[in-house]
Write a structure and sequence with these properties.
The chain is 16% helix and 41% strand. By secondary structure, it is an alpha+beta fold. The chain folds into two domains: 2-121 and 264-278, Diaminopimelate Epimerase, Chain A, domain 1 (Roll), CATH 3.10.310; 145-256, Diaminopimelate Epimerase, Chain A, domain 1, CATH 3.10.310. It has a 17-stranded mixed sheet that branches. Strands 9-10 form a two-stranded antiparallel ribbon.
Length: 279
């Protein structure tokens, strides 16, 4: 079975194409492919399927390394959009996910020669029931925390996020606090845990513990959630640069409520999965 290994700022993906033929990917098989020692290794496993909605060019299914399905992944959307644009010789495609339709545009080429892709991640949802959390609360100041992480902002970007603002993002023991907060009963569907630091005018430093994946070099939906959260707190304008471990993303919270994410993507290599990984 052929696959692509792609990444957006180091947030890496194994991309499988099931548009012309279905194949069974049990949770065990997903975990094996995503394992960096036993399989190919990735932050998320992406499966391309025929679209089911009018106007969509492809359906993108997203699996976390734990085998569970995710609702949204901004960096993967940009990678898949780049593949479809190359196939169709176009600068615009629409990617369907379980979280909705995501319009994507080619926004130029970076200094390294790699494509820059902008994707409309859809509207930021802010109601406590949409995130969701266990009880009614002001999602701009949610009553949940651990140690130095307190008073987060809740945002749903197709998946649930809690963004904590801190003075020094590097000093936070996110490997320890991230899983505790992810699995706190305050989040009935678990949550992505972000720690954001204001590092300049319109600039944020972000680290994210991803639900079902752990620490990654970049989290696109987490960057979107961070800018929405920072805008709600009056820390940044509606457009800001977010620096993650793998590089920088430009995020804009549009007046219609949608969130636009722009950044580079890369194809690392192509390969074939051995049958043993699917047995």
């Amino acid at each position: 079975m052929p696959f692509l290994k792609m990444h957006g700022l180091g947030n890496d993906f194994v991309v499988l194409d099931a548009r012309t033929g279905d194949f069974a990917l049990t949770p065990d098989r997903r975990r094996t492919i995503a394992d960096r020692r036993l399989g190919v290794g990735c932050d998320q496993l992406i499966v391309l399927e025929p679209p089911t909605e009018r106007g969509a060019d492809v359906f993108m299914r997203i699996y976390n390394p734990d085998g569970g399905e995710a609702g949204a992944c901004g960096n993967a959307t940009r990678c898949v959009a780049s593949v479809l644009m190359d196939e169709r010789k176009t600068d615009h495609v629409t990617v369907q996910t379980i979280a909705g339709l995501l319009d994507s545009q080619k926004a130029g080429t970076g200094g390294n020669g790699l494509p820059i892709i902008a994707v409309d991640m859809g509207p930021a949802r802010l109601d406590w029931r949409d995130i969701p959390v266990r009880e009614a609360c002001d999602t701009n100041h949610m009553p949940i925390g651990r140690g130095p992480l307190q008073d987060p902002v809740g945002t749903n970007m197709g998946n649930p996020h809690a963004t904590f603002f801190v003075d020094d993002a590097e000093a936070i023991p996110l490997k320890e606090l991230g899983p505790e907060l992810e699995h706190d009963r305050f989040f009935p569907e678990r949550a992505n845990i972000g720690v954001a630091q204001l590092v300049g005018e319109g600039r944020l430093r972000l680290r994210v513990w991803e639900r079902g994946a752990g620490l990654t070099l970049a989290c696109g939906s987490g960057a979107c959630a961070a800018v929405v959260a920072a805008t709600r707190r009056g820390l940044v304008p509606r457009k800001a640069e977010v620096t993650v471990d793998g590089g920088a993303l430009t995020i804009e919270w549009l007046r219609d409520g949608h969130v636009l994410m722009t950044g580079g993507v890369a194809l690392a290599f192509k390969g074939e999965l051995d049958r043993s990984l699917l047995s």
